[in-house]
Specification:
This protein has 236 residues and is α/β, with parallel strands linked by helices. Helix content is 30%, strand content 27%. The strands form two sheets. Strands 1, 2, 3, 4, 5, 6, 7 and 8 form an eight-stranded mixed β-sheet that branches. The protein binds 5-O-phosphono-beta-D-ribofuranosylamine.
């Protein structure tokens, strides 16, 4: 991994060296997870900064939201590359080089990445997926969780591998499924947790607390959360 940028911060009382990982968020649409990451990065001492928001969709709403916050944006539409996915990703890679990016966060980026790009950025691309991987890979996860009758759903942040929605898992959030949930109500409840989970997972990676060893993520110094039961005991 490229070493993170070092910024010397000098105050009246002290001087210190602050290291921040330069992150590019890839989006294709509204960009709510990108905004959650940007909010987290704006807090002092967060170990990463959103240095670029990149989209394959020229008019993705999230691009405008990022620009309003003063974040650099780039649109790299795929259509001009006429099906040559690797050529499209070489153009993206050039943008990442221009902005000296260390890590890519996929945040609703609706294109599969080529093996060329995934290997070039190996262990430097993370993704958020709205299910408890490895269950419910792919699209329409909330509908499929309801059809399956699962009582827990959630979201996962993982390092990206060539196969869709696969790769070492960094962090997961669980969400109970209610008897009267619709895909929309369940998706809304999951999205709230996505906005908590993604900044948390990014901090783990950017601080060096989460690393990949043998295709599993190793975490330093984290207590286990409490187990949970749905429906709760006593609910009869
Ligand atoms: C999120 O549900 C995310 O998990 C999935 O795509 C959606 C993007 O939403 N990968 P947003 O653009 O971040 O609002």
């Amino acid at each position: 991994m490229r070493s993170a940028t070092c910024i010397r911060v000098t105050g009246r009382r002290s001087s210190m060296v602050r290291s921040e990982m330069r992150v590019a968020a890839f989006i294709s649409g509204r960009g709510s997870n990108m905004l959650a990451l940007a909010d987290a990065c704006a807090v002092s001492d967060f170990p990463a900064e959103i240095a670029l928001v990149l989209s394959n969709v020229v008019d993705a709403p999230g691009l405008g939201l990022a620009a309003e916050r003063g974040i650099a944006t780039e649109a790299v539409p795929h259509r001009p590359f006429a099906g040559d996915r690797e050529a499209h990703e070489r153009a993206i890679d050039a943008a990442l080089e221009r902005h000296a990016i260390d890590l890519v966060c996929l945040a609703g980026y609706m294109r599969l990445l080529t093996p060329w790009f995934v290997e070039r950025w190996r262990n430097r691309i993370i993704n958020i997926h709205p299910s408890l991987l490895p269950a419910f890979k792919g699209l329409d996860t909330h509908e499929r969780v309801l059809e399956a009758g699962a009582l827990w759903h959630g979201c996962t942040v993982h390092f990206v591998r060539v196969a869709m929605d696969e790769g070492p898992i960094i962090a997961q959030a669980i969400v109970p499924v209610a008897a009267d949930d619709t895909a929309e109500s369940l998706g809304t409840r999951v999205l709230v947790q996505e906005h908590r989970l993604y900044p948390h997972a990014l901090a783990l990676v950017a601080s060096g607390a989460a690393t990949v060893e043998g295709e599993r993520v190793v975490l330093r110094g984290h207590p286990l959360p409490e187990p949970a039961i749905n429906p709760p005991e006593g609910a009869r």
